[in-house]
Structure formats: structure tokens, C-alpha cells
Amino acid sequence: MAKPLPMPIRLVAAVLLGTAAIANAHEHHMDKIPEGESVSADPIDSILWIHILVQTIGWGILFPTGMVLGIIRSKWHVPVQTAGCVLAIIGYFLGHKHKGRQFTVNAHAQFVPTIMLILIAQVAMGVYLKLHLEKGIHGKIRKIVVKAHGVVGKMMPIVIWVQFLFGGITAMGFCRGEHVGQCAAHFIMGSAFVAYGILLTIILLVGQLWLRKTGRSQEFFDSLVIAAWGCVNTFTEHRWGTAWVKNDLQHTAMGIIWWCAGLVGIWLSRTRDGRPKRNLIPGIVILLTGWGMSAHPQTLPLSSMVHEVFGYTLMAAGVTRIVEISFVLRDRSSVNADGADPNSFQYLTPFLLYASGFLFMGATEEQMQVLSDAHVTHVSYVLILFSIAFLLFLFTNMLIHLYAVSTWSSNSKSDDENPHVNGMANGHARADRRVRDAEEFELEGLISDDEDARPLVDKEERQAPASRS
């Protein structure tokens, strides 16, 4: 017999369904918006500030934390996600009840029904799984729902990130008319740098076992993405058949070097006998991209200085990546077998990518014009953006730590409770058990094992050809 759902879950589900029904019913007042503008001159009122704060806590902190708690199957998963849903509902109504600044039709408001439907679907799947219906047809349905619930849960941080960007753009009235193209380029490329930094952080701290399991080096995946991205930029940065304007040629040339270098990186990512091999191509591409952006022609002096700092930061990320591979790791995949205790120098490249991303997202034409009119110096602005990068870097490390500590402690507990043969539980290595755990949790990108699980990577690579023969 199915267990009755807790009252908080039932209330959240009911309110979410009601919220979806009125998602498009709100009338947006636009009587104070001047003709040709996207926002009114009114200040952001206290209700809208509370809306921003509540949504930041609910969507930006609680939901990602709840996602990790779900991955590790913590008892706190449901309470944290329920609290996030409550704040999301409160923030939704606050966003429709504010006064002060008015907005025209915008991407942030138009995306609300979509993101709320995603949330409703996620809650519905969670409720279904909580009922523990496993007999008959429900057994097959449950397997599908488990996978869908996991996929949607891991997709939520990306959806939330996009909505947050839409919210910031809407609040300031940016990215309209002739500014759409360069604005989209800044936010997409900046987000890509941040995402790259997050992925490198995950691989650095908990992804070494998964990386070895793929039989590929980190540079294979990096080069593959660089080559694909370069192909896109080559044919989208300039409208072919028309005159070359502004920075079209530089953007297109940058796309060309990306796919050219990416192909080289893919080729160099394996040895002659097929083993994974580190290479410096992605680091060189990052370095060259930073150099190009540091000399990117700009209209405003402030914009030129911010782009210059962005370029130098990206160049530093490329240099630190090269130094890490060549001198810290000496072509190994990690300092030790499981990557649980990385060298402190290895944190530099991911963080510099976070900072580069925020610098690039914060350097659009309209943002630079507003700051220039307010006489804000590039030093103050850059320090603020670096501060935001530090906070996201901290939050990412905290979530990874939460996952890693729970996984390691659960494995240690099972070792203590099970009989040992030759010093190992049931005669099996811990690394093998963690592979099974990771497959069960369906999180191939967040895996780790103990420091003594395998020999050092260089020793393992020397033994690989013999084992294959």
C-alpha cells in the first residue's frame, strides 16, 4: 500500500498547479515606459528586491543543494527541495506584485511559464517516486521516472542560470534592438567560460575515476568542444555575402583557429597504442583567445580596459593550464590516483575561467555605457566581478565537497560492516564498488575513489599495454 504523502509536499504540489494556471493571467503595467524604451525610469522597489533575494536563495542555492542531496540519497533531499519550492512560489507572486520600475514584454517574464512547468514536472515525478508504486505497470514506469527525475534535476541549474541572466538583463533594460547580437555573444561566451570552469572543478575533485573509465584524456573532451565551438563561430560571427564590419574579421579568425587547434588537440589526445595522452592545445587556445580579447577594439575607454583585464585573465588561465600539465602533473591525469587531494596550483585554472566568464558577461556595450556615465572606474568594477566569481567558485566547491564526503563516508561504513578478504571488503577493490555506486546514482560526471585504491596513474599507464595483451 502506498504511503500517504507528507502535508508540505501536498501543499507545494497544489500551489504549483495553481501557479501554473495563472502564469499568463497577470497584466503588466507599461503606462510609464517612454516610447522606444524597454523599462521605465522608476527605481526598483523593495518588493522587487525581495523577489530577487527570495528567488536567489530558492532557485540559486536550495535547488542546486537539493540536487546534490538527491544524488547522494540524503534524507534532507525532500525537505530542502520543498523549502526551495515554497520560496519559488513566494518569489513568483512577489514578481507579479511589485510596483516601481515597469518593464515591456521580455525574455525573463516569457520564460517563467516554462521554468515553472519544469518545476511542476519535477515535483510531480518526485511525488510519484515517493509513493513507491512498484507493482505491475508501475514497475516499468518507475524506472523511466527515476531516470527522467535525475535528468531534469541535473538540468535545473542550467535552466536557473539562464533565467537569472534574463532577470538581470530585464531589470536594466539591456539587450534590445541593435544590441541583441553583441549582448547574446557576451552572455553565451561568458557562460561557456564559467561552465568550463565548473566542469574542470568537478573533474579535478571527484571525476578522476570516471575519466579513466572513459579511456580518454581531459584534453580530448576539451579539444572536441573547442573544435565544435570554432565551427559555429566561423560561420555565425559574420553574415557571409555582406560587408565586413566592426570586429567581424577578428571573431571569425578566432573561430577558425579554434577548430583548427581543436582538431590537433583531438589527434594528440592518444598515444600510438591507443592510451590517453595529455596535451597543451586547449591551454594554448585559451591563451591565444585571451591575447586576442585583450586587444579587442572598443568604443569607450572603460570598455577597452575591462576587455583588457578579461583578456589577461583568460591568458593567465591558459598559462596556468600549461604549467599544471607540464610541470605539476608531468603529463599524468592527477597528482594521486583518485584526485582526492589535488595540488593547490590546480585550482587556479578553474577559478580564472570563472572570473573570465563574469568579466566577459559584464562587458557589454550598454553596461559599459551606464558605468562610464556613472564615472565608475574599471578597477572597482573588475574587483566586484572577481568577488562574484569567488562566491560561485566557493559554492561549487561546497556542493562537490557535500557529494564527495557523503560518498566516501558511506563506502567507509560499508567496509566496516562487511567481511574482509586480503584487507578488502569481500575481496573487491573499493574503486570497483564505487563504479557500481556511481552507475546506481546515474552520475557519471561525479565519481571518486580512495587514495589507496589504485597505483599512481603513471604506473598504471606503464602496466596498461601488458594487461591488454
TrEMBL record:
Residues 1-25 form the signal peptide. Residues 411-469 are annotated as: Disordered. The chain crosses the membrane at residues 49-71, 78-95, 107-131, 151-172, 184-207, 280-297, 309-329, 345-363, 383-404. Keywords: Membrane, Signal, Transmembrane, Transmembrane helix. Residues 33-132 form the DUF2427 domain. Residues 160-403 form the Protein YTP1-like C-terminal domain. Residues 429-438, 453-463 have a biased composition (Basic and acidic residues). Residues 439-452 have a biased composition (Acidic residues). CDD domains: Cyt_b561_FRRS1_like (cd08760). This is Integral membrane protein. It comes from Periconia digitata.
